[in-house]
Amino acid sequence: MNLIQERALLDIALEEARAGLEEGGIPIGAALYGADGALLGRGRNRRVQDGDPSMHAETAAFRAAGRQRTYGGTTMVTTLAPCWYCSGLVRQFGISRVVIGEARSFDGGQAWLAEHGVQIMVLDDAACVELMRTFVTARPELWLEDIGESGP
Q1: Residue 23 needs a FRET pair 20 to 30 A away by CA distance; which of 47, 50, 52, 75 works?
Q2: Of the residues 6, 16, 58, 102, which is catalytic?
Q3: pLDDT tens digits for 126-146?
């Protein structure tokens, strides 16, 4: 896959992130693609909307994809570097690649994933960067809660 194709895959995740923001949630979106490039599932962070702390964007996309015989060769595309929880999901199920829209706002588990054989591509996409920058500035308390840094 080349950079143009990866950026095209990011469009679905960005749509999800924007929809989450419109719903009053955290603007992170993801999509899971099969080895053949077919969209298997898409989702957005719904922690706020559902009151469910486990409903991260990658988790939602994974769940929407449904049961697969194997996840080898699949690609998780996410607007923001995956947290440790979502990085664990990638490792647990053998997702082969993670394409990240941006990692400036949050570094997550991307280095750990790379160390364990997951292909990582950080696009540093301007739209993803701006979406998160604007959100973190407007809702710092919600952002800190989402990344587990809201304090005791």
Answers
A1: 75
A2: 58
A3: 999 999 999 999 999 999 988
